[in-house]
Amino acid sequence: MNDEFNLSRRALFPFLTGVSLLAQDAVAQPLTGSILSGQSDTLVAWHSRSGNTRVIAGIIQRALKSDQYEILPQQPYPADYLEMVEQASNERKSGFNPPLLNNLADLKKYKTVYLGYPIWGMSLPSIVRSFLVRHDFSGINIIPFITHGGYGIGDSVDIVTKSTAGATISAPFIMQADQERQTMEKTLGWLVDVQHK
Question: Most buried pick, 33, 39, 120, 190, via CB within 10 A?
Answer without folding.
Answer: 120
